[in-house]
Amino acid sequence: MENIVNKILYSKGDKTVPDYTKEIERRRTFAIISHPDAGKTTLTEKFLLYGGAINLAGSVKGKATARHAVSDWMEIEKERGISVTSSVLQFNYDGYCINILDTPGHADFGGEVERVLTMVDGVLLLVDAYEGPMPQTKYVLRKALEQHLKPIVVINKIDRPDQRVDEVIDEVLDLFIELDADEDQLEFPVVLASARNGIAKLSMDEESNSLEPLFKVILENIPAPDVDVNAPLQMLVNTLDYDDYVGRIVVGRVVRGTIHNGENIILMDEAGNRNGKIGRLYTYQGLKRVEVPEVEAGDIVALIGLQDANIGDTIADSENPEALKGIKIDEPTLSMIFYVNNSPFAGREGEFVTSRHLRDRLFKEVKTNVSMRVTETESPDAYEVAGRGELHLSILIETMRREGFELQVGKPKVIMHRDENGKLMEPMEALTIDVPQDFMGAVMEGLGLRKAELQNMTEMAGYLRMEFKIPARGLIGFRNQFLTDTKGNGIMNHVFAGYEEYKGEIPGRTRGSLVAFETGETTSYGIGNAQERGTMFVVPAEKIYEGQLVGENSREDDMDVNPCKKKHVSNMRASGSDDAIRLIPPQTFSLEQALEHINDDELVEVTPKSIRMRKKVLDRLERGKMRGRMKNVQA
């Protein structure tokens, strides 16, 4: 990429080297952080559009539009309208080089946010003009303040008819004070914006038709990198990517010195030092990577050639190697067991079905997904995978499904530990719920059973905002119940809030399962009889196997049913036997809903084309024997 300012040459000993001082002074690097759906990706695109890096900004997928955000490159991101990975974007504006890092908003991908914040000099905190600060806002802001980054607060969606800008600014200030921001951080500038319309202003009374006011605030308040270009090389490995052609791609920010193509370096970690050689260097131009011969301190670079580099490693000068402080990432809070698919339908839809395929894929994931852990179990066909939350793990499962894998996963379990006094500690979540007042009672009752403690309650334009502290295991399976209780009108957000003493037993699912009696193809007649027992999950002419969950029982016990039963054919007519069969539409499950629904003795079978739920033990006679043994043990 062409330099913004011509490099000025000066003499150092017997060498003539470039002077990058002016170029570094005209560089601004910042991350956009917020809770989900505050408009980060939309604002990022408007930046690129305004800076001339793209010609057409897509809107975040939703609202019946087929377009999606250009910085959301994964298919899952396009479909869900959320960011799962961070994106590095660069463009020139008014003689300045602007680096933007678009980050995920969901706390499950907090590992991405934590690493990104080590590469920037400031942050744009985006807050919805109606919703105000949410639990995830608190989480990402705490991480930014811990890094002593300069914040700029952007109140987005000011075009909403229900906006409450003044109250939201006060709430943001309260949040900064609560998080012990220093005096410099408390003097944050506030910009009002509508990312969708591409406008920004400093007060509601001003007229504006562009993002110019926001750019001015960024250039005035985000500092230039404080780096020494002429010192020995130091760079921290922040992110890893992978390409089938060039292998591992290392992404990070050059902290000190200059890095060159073909340069010999020292790779440093806690285990020791090893030699390496840089292959090619790339910087970012708009959304693309552009090959360059060298990159100086303060810029973000992607490089190839270091196949054994890991996140947190230091890339250092070969003659004067000095290590940087590694990246500390919060530990996982939720785990699942991933199994090889051994159902009767295994191998029919997927390409990768063996334990070797599953193992290789999971251990490949942890090389780039730093907040995930994979542990081998006693069984060669099962692996324990730990992550930051249900969404974090379900995105991995969905990605593997699209890649052609078949697998089975068990019920999510929270990761507990004991403190120094031997007390059992469990992860807690800060839960925020916005719900119409009519549904408050049902929501409070449901959360009470799950050991939730009400922390605060405020009224907002016909809605109640309730803040709870709840055990993480109490949220497993709660979303479906919550949407049912509020008839789809409730909104819930939650974020990790530390560990507390174990809160006691929480009741699980109150209804049993309808389990297929035999393998076969479902019939309208069989489903018509079975639906009298509960809610069905299958449709006519669907292939099922013995032990598959085909419905939810209306009672708490499991029941074997036969939706494959055919109507007995005879040449005799009977009164009422030819009445039309009226089938109730079945309940369908997304991957997350299926994971929330299953009990400890059940699994979710995931293939490229299907998501099924099943019993761990498929044979009904064997399940009956196990229930008998359990009763004897309890007696």
Characterization of the model:
Residues about 1-15, about 55-75 and about 75-85 have low confidence and may be disordered. The strands form eight sheets. An eight-stranded antiparallel beta sheet has the order 14-13-19-10-11-18-15-16. A seven-stranded mixed beta sheet has the order 4-5-3-6-7-8-9, with helices on both faces. Strands 20, 21, 22, 23, 24, 36 and 37 form a seven-stranded antiparallel beta sheet that branches. The radius of gyration is 28 Å and the shape is globular. With about 625 residues, the protein is of the alpha+beta class.
Q: Note the overall shape.
A: globular
Helix content range: 10-25%
Spatial order of strands in the largest sheet:
14-13-19-10-11-18-15-16
Q: Mean pLDDT, rounded to whole units?
A: 81
Largest sheet: 8 strands, antiparallel
The DSSP helix count reads: 15
| Overall radius of gyration | 28 Å
Poorly predicted runs are 1-17, 56-74, 76-85
> What distance lies between the first and last C-alpha atoms, to the nearest angstrom?
75 Å
Structural class: alpha+beta
List keywords for this structure.
single chain, about 625 residues, alpha+beta, eight-stranded antiparallel sheet, seven-stranded mixed sheet, disordered N terminus
List the helices and strands and how they pair.
Elements: E1 8-12, E2 15-19, H1 21-25, E3 27-33, H2 40-50, H3 75-80, E4 87-93, E5 96-102, H4 110-116, E6 122-128, H5 135-146, E7 150-156, H6 165-178, H7 183-186, E8 190-194, E9 199-201, H8 212-221, E10 234-243, E11 247-256, E12 258-260, E13 264-269, E14 272-277, E15 281-285, E16 288-292, E17 294-296, E18 300-304, E19 314-317, E20 334-340, H9 355-368, E21 373-376, E22 382-387, H10 390-402, E23 407-409, E24 413-414, E25 417-418, E26 424-436, H11 440-449, E27 453-460, E28 463-471, H12 478-485, E29 491-501, E30 513-516, E31 520-521, H13 524-530, E32 534-536, E33 543-544, E34 549-553, E35 559-561, H14 591-597, E36 602-606, E37 611-615, H15 620-634
Helix pairs in contact: 11-12
